[in-house]
Design brief:
The chain has 323 residues and is an alpha/beta fold. The protein has one domain: Metal-dependent hydrolases (TIM Barrel, Alpha-Beta Barrel), CATH 3.20.20. Helices cover 42% and strands 11% of the residues. The chain contains twelve helices and eight strands. A five-stranded parallel sheet has the order 4-5-6-7-8. A three-stranded parallel sheet has the order 1-2-3. Helix 2 packs parallel to helix 11 and helix 3 runs parallel beside helix 4. The radius of gyration is 19 Å and the shape is globular. The two termini are 16 Å apart. Bound molecules: 2,6-dihydroxybenzoic acid and zinc ion. The site of 2,6-dihydroxybenzoic acid has 9 residues, from loops. Zinc ion binds next to strand 1.
Length: 323
Amino acid sequence: MDGKVALEEHFAIDATLGEPNAFAPVWPELSRRLLNIDASLADMDEHGVAMMVMSLNAPAVQAIPDAATAIAVARRANDALADAIVMRSDRFAGFAALPMQDPDAAALELTRCVKELGFVGALVNGFSQIGNVDNATYYDGPAYRAFWATVERLDVPFYLHPRNPLPGHAPQYQDHAWMLGPNWAFAAETAVHALRLIGSGLFDAHPRLKIILGHLGEGIPALLWRIDNRNGWMKLPHRYTAKHSVAPYFHRNFYLTTAGNFHTPALDNCLAEVGDDHLLFSIDWPFEDIGQACRWLEGAPLDDARRAKIARENAIKLLKLKI
Ligand code: GRE
Ligand code: ZN
């Protein structure tokens, strides 16, 4: 199946590449792929991926406590991405990295990226460390309302991408580091952030916001009924300030991608919960294999119309792609 579009695909610049760490054995190949925006082209051709929407690696800008440095690095990364994709705008598009340490600067950078660089949205790696490495700031607070107004006005999606919790904030993973990263902690961290956005009433103030979650919704679809069932039942004043229960916002304001989660029962659950207008194909290059992702989608028991929506049509609509 040709013409697929993939949305959670990553690159790095020298300033954000980071250390080998857990990737030590595959680091030479992984870093080569991250630093070359078109390193995926041969695999894209082989497996029928028409376009990748590229975004900066994680946690990158979100892990820079000094706001001025975060602003400069985001700008450098976005300029590097724009330079690389201008040559291949038929195959690559861009999501903006944003210095969320300074909400006004983040709104300005997103505006620049959309209006001047032709980017199709933003991808942000979870909470930002602001002022010191131990700070974790989430985006449901009042300081971010003007930023969200800008996102809504620009009418572009905001991809909430995972990062790990900070070491000092995550005693639950002590002696069980195997759960960090994509195995578990990414999903738990990102799901909590998404639920914070919903519970804060953000989508009452800005009903046209579009938030994308990867990895088939970071676990939320499987728990959606239970969240609302118990939240509705509890009569304690627990500061759930949104007007509606969680599910209506999740259905209306959220889009889910298949990045890194190529499992048909999980996809079926998402289709049952959010429907086929809000599901989009993604791979999670270079951490995942393009062939595996594509073979899975092509072999999944979906009718052709549904497969085309997930593989391509929903992305064209959501990102206003001209392909
Ligand atoms: C991702 O982008 O989802 C990712 C990382 C690091 C390791 C694995 C992974 O940023 O899936
Ligand atoms: Zn990713």
